[in-house]
Design brief:
Largest sheet: 5 strands, mixed
CATH class: Mainly Beta
CATH superfamily: YVTN repeat-like/Quinoprotein amine dehydrogenase
Radius of gyration: 19 Å
CATH topology: Methylamine Dehydrogenase, Chain H
Strand content: 35-45%
Oligomer: single chain
Distance between the termini: 29 Å
Number of strands: 33
């Protein structure tokens, strides 16, 4: 067996072993429908990507891009800080339509379900926009800023607000089904695991809420507030905190199974990607961390030149992650070795999205890049 074949076999074994730890379903090869690519927010792409990637096109918006893109049916949906939602042809980079929210969009990432795009703005409004025409379907007003991205379970849309509530809306009409109160702003994107939605919040708790009724099933102290979203796989969840820790949580027993700390006291704002036995996320210590799901110990670290708020994407045995140093990095999942980098020239705080053989990421300079 060649060295490359052996490496691929080792990675396949690692992923297969990880599936025994808890089901990890990657995003569809042809779609990245929302933040982190799947309901459990695992950050794993199903598409194959060229090696190395090269720039196919770039698209200029009029403000910073802090939210992550969605890719569905050959279109890229991305929001910019001036409150404009853009639909861009994945093949050509040409704009199909734009929709103005009339407010600002910072981190709420577009989510696409059944030809409708959902996004939240800083006026606290959830917008449902027709994915084909760019026309408004409905809007729903909360009482606080929305930084959260939408997620869904069946025909129910779930999104957090700074008014300290998680909202469950009818996806087709925007009608309120229920809202669940927390004790702090809900910055994160809710994660879906079976019939439970999980929110990690500024109230320093991870909450499990029944999707059908909106009733809280449990609340687990995290020891620090969180800007990150939890990644959920099987009976486990993983989330970083502003208490400078990453937590591995046993959802069945509702306890913290392990805590990962570094010698430097910097928060974890990046949301984790989970594949096999590996949890990968960025830190404000300027480092990408890869942690063992089994032990909570570091498997490798990779230093960048600025904080890493971008949430990593895993595609096969490859990790893609942006840094505020203006570079998109490709790292080897097994070793943490840098394979490739792309210089955007402006901080990358948005997270990569990948589908249809393409990877897209936006920059704080207002440019969306498509690489194939």
């Amino acid at each position: 067996m060649t060295g490359r074949g052996l490496h691929a076999a080792v990675l396949l074994l690692a992923v297969s072993s990880g599936l025994a730890l808890g089901q990890q379903t990657p995003a569809s090869p042809d779609a990245w429908a929302g933040f982190r690519g799947s309901g459990p927010l695992l950050g794993v792409a199903g598409t194959g990507l060229a090696q190395p990637l090269t720039l196919a096109w770039s698209f200029e918006t009029k403000d910073a891009i802090g939210s992550s893109a969605a890719i569905v049916d050959g279109s890229v949906y991305v929001a910019s800080g001036d409150g404009v939602l853009h639909a861009i042809d994945l093949a050509t980079g040409k704009e199909r339509w734009q929709y103005s929210t009339g407010s600002s969009i910072e981190e709420s990432s577009p989510a696409v379900r059944e030809r409708v795009v959902y996004v939240g703005d800083l006026d606290g409004v959830v917008h449902a926009v027709d994915a084909v025409t760019g026309k408004a379907r409905w809007t729903f007003k909360t009482e606080g800023e929305i930084h959260s991205s939408a997620n869904w379970s069946g025909d129910r849309l779930l999104i957090g607000s700074y008014d300290e509530h998680l909202y469950c809306l009818a996806a087709t009409t925007g009608a309120l089904i229920w809202k669940a109160r927390t004790q702090g702003p809900v910055h994160c994107t809710p994660a879906i695991g079976g019939d439970t939605v999980y929110v990690s919040g500024c109230d320093e708790h991870l909450r499990g809420i029944d999707i059908a009724t909106g009733r809280q099933r449990f609340s687990l102290p995290l020891g620090g507030y969180t800007g990150a979203s939890a990644a959920v796989t099987g009976s486990d969840a993983y989330v970083g905190t502003f208490g400078n820790e990453v937590l591995g949580i046993d959802l069945a027993r509702r306890v913290v199974r392990w805590t990962y700390r570094t010698t430097r006291t910097f928060p974890f704002y990046s949301s984790a990607a989970v594949a096999g036995d590996r949890v990968v996320l960025g830190g404000r210590d300027k480092i990408v961390h890869c942690i063992s799901r089994s032990t909570g110990r570091a498997l490798w670290t990779f230093p960048t030149r600025a904080r890493v708020d971008s949430s990593p994407l895993i595609a096969g045995g490859r990790v893609f992650v942006g840094s505020s140093d203006g570079n998109l990095y490709e790292l080897d999942l097994a070793s943490g070795r840098k394979v490739w980098e792309f210089t955007a020239g402006a901080p990358l705080t948005a997270s990569p999205a990948a589908a249809g053989g393409a990877l897209v990421i936006g920059s704080q300079g207002g440019t969306l890049y498509c690489l194939r």
